[in-house]
Amino acid sequence: MFTFPIVAVRKVIDQGIADAAQNGGFRNPYYGTRPGEGEKSGVWLVGDQGVYLCSNGKLAEGARPLVVYSEQCHPDGHPDWWDYKRRHFGADDGIEF
Prior knowledge:
Layout: H1 6-23, E1 43-48, E2 50-55, E3 67-69, H2 81-88, E4 94-96
Antiparallel strand pairs: 1-2, 1-4, 2-3
């Protein structure tokens, strides 16, 4: 199980709404392979270098999304993050919408 501080999750959601309003909508969770599918408001659970949440609001050129790492799987704050990620998310990188 992954847990996130609720205040930080609310900030991610608010930032995603602002990004979408400023930049024309929402990003595609399928890396553009299925245009028009999944381009709706939401958050992504991302397994990468740790596990984190980010919104899918479109970003300005060169901008990075606001992310919040799970309390169990932050690469800078939890020494066993890789084992935890592999056990609960899998070894591969990925996105869950």
